[in-house]
Write a structure and sequence with these properties.
single chain; alpha+beta; five-stranded antiparallel beta sheet; 46% helix; globular; DUF302; UCP021774; TT1751-like_sf; DUF302 domain-containing protein
Length: 131
């Protein structure tokens, strides 16, 4: 994965993996605020076909509240995006935005610490999907 994210392949059918991701996020206090169906959008707007690709906008209200108190404009960097995508070969990949990398741009110690905490929570979600 790129410097701004982490993740791994997850066994299972696409829809089932999306459900597992949603439940694993919930276990860590995150809810999915938005779901963007990139494949459907590209098909509708450009007539392009691609394998399933969803962007889930995940938010942990406690972490978000702390971040907003520390830096009111941090909403520009929220929510934490989680990508569930299927490769041409049928493998399902789950990727997580690295909040430590993204929130590190703010350059405030309390936000940097929070980015580490959020990253740790999302890493637990990632690990649970591979278990």
């Amino acid at each position: 994965m790129a410097q701004y994210g982490f993740g791994s392949p997850v066994k299972g059918e696409f829809g089932a993996v999306v459900e597992r991701v949603t439940q694993a996020l919930k276990q860590e206090g995150f809810g999915v605020l938005t779901t963007i169906d990139v494949a459907a959008t590209l098909k509708a707007k450009l007539g392009q076909d691609m394998p399933p690709y969803l962007i889930l906008g995940a938010c942990n209200p406690s972490f978000a509240s702390q971040a907003l108190r520390a830096e009111p404009d941090i909403g520009l960097l929220l929510p934490c995006n989680v990508v569930v995508r299927q490769t041409e070969g049928g493998e399902v990949i789950v990727g997580f935005m690295d909040p430590e990398a993204v929130l590190g741009m703010v350059n405030k110690p309390e936000v940097t610490t929070l980015g580490h905490q959020v990253r740790t929570a999302l890493q637990r979600v990632d690990a649970s999907l591979r278990a």
